[in-house]
Write a structure and sequence with these properties.
CATH class: Alpha Beta
Oligomer: single chain
Radius of gyration: 19 Å
Strand content: 15-25%
CATH superfamily: Aldolase class I
Number of helices: 10
Order of helices and strands: EEEEEEHEEHEEHEHHEHEHHEHHE
Length: 311
């Protein structure tokens, strides 16, 4: 792995591009919340595929797909970020989250499960909490069955599972996420077996665009507020979002939303996670950094412009 470019701010997020050989590029990120020291919370977002075959309409990672990363290639990202900060490999952070949610649908790469199971043996990190975000593609039943076993064996109460839903309108969901995927009934069936007392609630994530409905009753029909947590995020200003005419319903400086009030009124614990506006300029959204890098090299057109430093 050779780091060829990076961008960011020390107290928000730093995005790295690595050349893995044969023209294959990946990006990975370390981030923290301003005013919260790294010893309290530190988040690593790791790529699992070279690009992504799903092609979500607002995600720049779908611009190209060149296959799966190996176990060693995934671990090399984590190793780089940890040793760059802690040469002795000891991570003192109280909440140390490793997210398998950067470039690539993780359920397409079975090596992700091997790594999740091994993490406590690979790293000395008292606050370790793995996180996996998925669109739940059809055909991934074996992957999720094994994930449930690993969570029970290794991470009771210390694992974060997130399903990317984005809208309760099934036709619009199919347009946003153009891959065969589990319906709400199957997600709920799996989630109800995955969640055990003492676990973190399963997250249903909505990167909420305008004209993308969220029907509270549809959610209640499938997802119990006792087991599921709702997270709403903006649609980030990626090249693909702009190309597909998707604008964000969640805005950085707007505090009140009718849909949020309705969800809370229905008993859901939830959050509106906006993050730092400057992350858009850093390019810390999935695939955004590589898209901009290739744009500067004349290999793609379009994209959001932000500071880029080759190394």
């Amino acid at each position: 792995m050779r780091i060829i470019a990076k961008t960011g701010k020390e107290d928000i997020a730093t995005v790295y591009i690595a050349d893995m050989g044969k023209g294959r590029l990946i990006e990975f990120v370390e981030s923290q919340t301003p005013q919260i020291p790294r010893t309290e919370k530190w988040v690593l977002s790791i790529s699992t595929l070279y690009g992504c075959p799903v092609g979500c309409r607002f995600c720049d990672a779908g611009n190209h797909y060149q296959g799966k990363l190996s176990r060693e290639e995934i671990i090399s990202q984590i190793d780089y970020l940890i040793t760059n900060r802690y040469a002795d490999g000891l991570v003192p952070t109280k909440k140390f989250k490793i997210q398998f949610s950067r470039m690539g649908e993780p359920a397409f790469n079975y090596s992700v499960l091997d790594i999740i199971g091994e993490l406590p043996k690979l790293y000395s990190a008292r606050g370790l909490m793995p996180s996996l975000s998925t669109v739940a593609p059809v055909g991934s039943e074996r992957f999720f069955g094994r994930l449930r076993e690993i969570k029970e064996d290794v991470y009771k109460g210390r694992f974060q599972l997130q399903f990317s839903i984005h809208t309760t309108d099934t036709d619009k969901r199919d347009w946003l996420i153009p891959v065969k995927k589990w319906g709400f009934a199957k997600i709920a069936e799996y989630g109800d077996t995955f969640y055990k007392e003492g676990d973190r609630k399963i997250t249903l994530n909505f990167a909420l665009g305008n004209d993308m409905p969220v029907d509270v009753q549809v959610l209640l029909d499938y997802f119990s507020p006792q087991k599921y947590f709702i997270k709403m995020t903006p649609v980030n200003p990626t090249y693909q979002a702009s190309r597909n005419g998707i604008s964000s319903h969640i805005q950085p400086y707007k505090k009140n939303y009718e849909v949020v009030d309705m969800l809370r009124g229905a008993g859901y614990e939830m959050m509106v996670s906006i993050g730092e506006v400057e992350e858009n300029y850093i390019g810390s959204n999935c695939g955004q950094h590589i898209t901009n890098y290739l744009n500067e090299k004349g290999r793609v057109k379009g994209g959001y412009t932000y500071a880029l430093k080759e190394v």
